[in-house]
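Render this sequence as a predicted structure.
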Amino acid sequence: MRTLCVLSALVLCLTGCNQGLENRGFQARVIQATSPDDVFLTAQIILRREFGPLNIESDARRLVTQPVEYQTSSDSGTARDFYGGRSTMRRVAHLAVAKRGDGAIARLRIEIERKDTARQEVFQPERSRISDAPSQTPIERDAATTTRQNTVWTFVKRDRRLERALLVELQEQFAPEPEEVGAARPADDRPAETP
């Protein structure tokens, strides 16, 4: 029984504990007294700076960034994190802007995914026969598809910290300028009274 529990825990670590349990919510910010179109245009500038090329749906005020890949030896959600093994990860941002009262609401979700193509192949059952003939045709072995189509990405988590930072930056673009405290008032034109 104890061995079964250890093996179950090991399989969960290797296959990703949170697979299929993604939290697909958005963080949102209400931006008062501004046009949703203006918010959408400013959001494009901010996300283009952070992520590069964007897929833009102007009519729906939605955009999705191109995936930005990076290497990490932590926060991959796998057993590699324990020994500092490298994992290929990527971030993808989804943004939507809508009208809300006299202003707009911006919703942002940034997903972090892990490249799991090699891990997926390890866990696929071997479909071989006991003969010299191959057990699969080239199409069954993914020869008819591109490497990009065959790449497996597994959702790991959302980057809530970056979501919050970008939404605050977006909101600040439309915030009214604060008045200076203790600013000098215009001089009074009347002469000072003498006692």
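Summary. The first strand starts at residue 27 and ends at 31. The chain has six helices and seven strands.
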